Amino acid sequence: MNNSQTETFYLGVDGGGSKTLAVIVNARGEEVGRGQAGSSNYTSVGLEQAISNIYAAVEQARLPLGTEFSIEKAWLGLAAVDRPADYAALAPKVEHLAGTVFLTNDAELALSALPGTVGVVLIAGTGSISLGRNAQGITTRAGGWGNLLGDEGSGYALGSQALQAAVRAADGRGPHTILLERILAFWQLERAEQLIGEVYFQADKARIARLSTCVLQAEREGDPLAQELVQHAINELVLAARTVARKLGMNPEQPLPLALGGGLLINELSFQARFLELLASTHKLAQPVLVEQPALSAARAVIEIVDFNQWIRV
């Protein structure tokens, strides 16, 4: 008999604006399978494509285990899952992935990395959001409104603002900035006019968010506009984290448990350091937890979770 037929397995899914990651662990929390697919933000790619990407990632994660096994519990954290209508749309599509399926916003996965799931989470990737929970089980959030209404401090916001600065420079309506040449090179274009086709016919949110690397590089090279954009992003992220801490009644003199996620805060160390320095000017900080693998953290955390209580919407 295949050992996988007698073992118990657990699934974590991190569904963001750029990609979907699925991780399966055994009862000891050891990773046994991993899969990746495209975005599962259904407000961006549509419900059908989002569900297809979730299942593709999960099926890839299941491959090492064969076919004759089942998953006892799963925690799916998906971007844009916020309102009752979101749960109503997605829950029936994913309920068969495991015996018990917990569905939350993707930012809530990062709470699994904090002791007692208490503290403040800040995610800055394609989009951005801050979320927190206090010792009384009260949760609140700031940001996460999507690219048209907010997502300040996100990769998309930086990329979009860089594009606007670049075309203003190309017109002569704005100051010169090396952002224009950096973006053209990044997308392998020759002229500013080609940005129209690239943005309106080729670029999705994740593609625009990747332009944030151009902004950070231009900032390192001393470009004043890039420096302004990066500082604005840091200010907005600090504001979001401070807002969540204030709404939860967290004492700024007590160490604030903090979990960080998303490419900007995980991979860009200078950006991360400046964010922490500014936040620390008003709040005493505990050692920040970097949530580099939220799907794995969720798969391990769900082993012990019997119910999500009222702090997480089910």
UniProtKB/TrEMBL annotation:
It holds the Pfam family BcrAD_BadFG. Keywords: Kinase, Transferase. InterPro entries: ATPase_BadF, ATPase_NBD, Euk-type_GlcNAc_Kinase. It comes from the Bacteria. GO terms for molecular function: kinase activity. This is N-acetylglucosamine kinase. Residues 11-268 form the ATPase BadF/BadG/BcrA/BcrD type domain.
